[in-house]
Amino acid sequence: MSRLRSLWPASLLGRLTLVMVAGLLVTQLVANAIWAGQLRAKAQVEAQSAAQYVAHSASAAIRFYRSLPLSYRVLVIQQMREMGGTRFFVHLNHAYVPVKEIAPHPLAESVKTTLGATLKGDLPHLPAAQLAFAWPDQLVVSEDAHLSDLPDAWVQHILLVQPEPAPILVIQTELEPGNWLYMAALMPNPYFLSGNDPWAWDRLALQGLSLAAVLLLCLLVVRWITRPLAALSDAAGAFGQGEHAPPLPETGSREFINTARAFSAMRERIQRYIEDRERLFISISHDLRTPITRLKLRSELLDDEVLRNEFEEDLDELDMMVKGALQCVKDSDIHENPAEIKLDALLGRMVRSARLAGHEVGYEESGLTVRGKPLALKRAIGNLLDNALYYGKRAEISTRAETGAVAIAVRDHGPGVPEDALASLFDPYMRLEHGREQNDNGMGLGLGIARGVIEAHGGQLILENHPEGGLYATIRLPA
Fold it and tell me: Of 316, 313, 402, 389, whose CA–CA distance to 351 is shortest?
């Protein structure tokens, strides 16, 4: 089944083409099979009728030659050869002449059966006639004579020897002991064996040309139908990537015109919404920069250098987040250049801030570094730490080196999470009952944001319950 699915085209053009080609081929095969059956039945009826006609003619000729005195038969045969006008080539032999027959053919065997039965009915007192079909180049007429040895005048009006030979019917019957009458003739339709072949090359060529013409028309129609859909797909892809795409042409079928109009109207509405949202966040960002600038100026007036540096770092972080607000609205991350991050410095500052706020956080330095975006990574780890402090009151942060990766683990000492709810914690606005009780102001977005940042760094975020209680969040980043 998987192998068949792999052969199934992915594009609509390929699928329609495959279905139409398969349908045409099946139709042609079924039609050929029906036509071949009818042709064979018709050929069988015609051959039976022709066999009876030839048999009656042959029985009349046998009666005539049998009625002649033995000495007259040769004279009459000679006169017939010179005058012409006879259906049969006739020769007299003293014994039966073996004939090399054509390859077995059902229709030829049926004709011989009908011939034999009709001759037996017309000549009940004579021995059964010997019947055979042979090709002219292999036909012998006596013990020492071949058909090609005879004068052309004897056979050219009776048998088809060239340019396209036809199978020759040979009838041999014993008139008296030691006297055999040899008669050769063509069937009324000389090419009756090949005329009913539905797989003849000329018929196959004609059907092949017909099939090719129909397939070409089908391909053109399918291409004409799917081309507007391809244009719609390109326009949707370009719009999704923020590129400018020309308006869709309102040509083609009525259904596509309606779809193109609906898509254009939808694109205009979405574009207006995006522009309005960008203007809103631009104004918010502009309004927030002014008080941030004032706070920076006032922090310069602080005498305590350590406190001044803390204020400046917080204001720089806030300024970076304000600058990234508009980019976040455009579905992109805050722009930062990746750099080497010392985890002890990054995590130590977060731990100190949490302890100043009265929280209990455990951490031991490890000397590990990772490469990434400092502010984005701080935002992700901060979300995990905030959750741990909100719901567990006490948190522990640890780092360790793994094969090809660095792991950062954040554990709380809260009630943990039901196993069936772990997978849904990353969903937007997803909050469990005990989470709403501990933090009414939360929105349920922190874990989703954290996972997005970690995955953007090529890592992964894993949530699980700790064996000793509480939630255990592990960040794995490339070393």
Answer: 389
3-state SS, residue 107 = helix
Question: So what's the pLDDT on residue 225?
Answer: 74
CA proximity to 138, closest of 193, 98, 88, 92: 98
Q: Residue 430: which CATH number?
A: 3.30.565.10
* Contact criterion met (CB below 8 Å) for 130 and 117: no
54 and 174 in a common domain: yes
Three-state secondary structure string covering 139-173: CEEECCEEHHHCCHHHHCCCCCCCCCCCCEEEEEE
Residue 434 lies in a domain: yes
Q: What stretch of H or E contains 388?
A: helix 374-392
Note whether 64 and 94 are same-domain residues.
Answer: yes
Q: Which residue has the higher pLDDT, 270 or 156?
A: 270
Give the predicted TM-score (pTM) of the model.
Answer: 0.45
Contacts of 424 (CB under 8 A, 6+ apart): 430
Q: What is the dihedral of CA 107, 108, 113, 119, to 10 degrees?
A: 130
Structural domain boundaries enclosing 28: 14-186
Inside any domain, residue 320: no
Token pair of 432 as six digits? 């469990």
Report how many domains make up the chain: 3
Is residue 266 included in any domain, yes or no?
no
In a domain, 166, yes or no: yes
Give CA separation, 388 vs 288, 345, 410, 438, in Å: 30, 20, 8, 11
Nearest to 471 by CA among 429, 406, 411, 403: 411
Contact 360, 394 (CB under 8 A): yes
Assess contact for 110 and 198: CB atoms under 8 A. Answer: no
Query: Per the structure block, which two tokens stand in for 315?
Result: 């204001």
- Residue 348: closest CA among 391, 397, 402, 386: 397
Distances (CA, A) of 391 to 416, 432, 438: 9, 11, 6
Residue in 45, 185, 173 with CA at minimum distance from that of residue 111 = 45
Q: Are 166 and 214 in a shared domain?
A: no
CB 385 within 8 A of CB 410: yes
Tokens of 388: 């741990």
Burial class (CB in 10 A: 0-12, 13-18, 19+), 267: middle
User: Do 111 and 69 reside in the same domain of the chain?
Assistant: yes
Question: 182 and 219: one domain?
Answer: no
Cβ neighbours, 10 Å, residue 397: 22
Give residue 56's pLDDT band: very low, low, confident or very high (50, 70, 90): very high
- How confident is residue 117, by pLDDT bands cut at 50, 70 and 90? very high
CA distance 119 to 287: 117
Most confident of 212-221, 271-280, 288-297, 352-361: 352-361
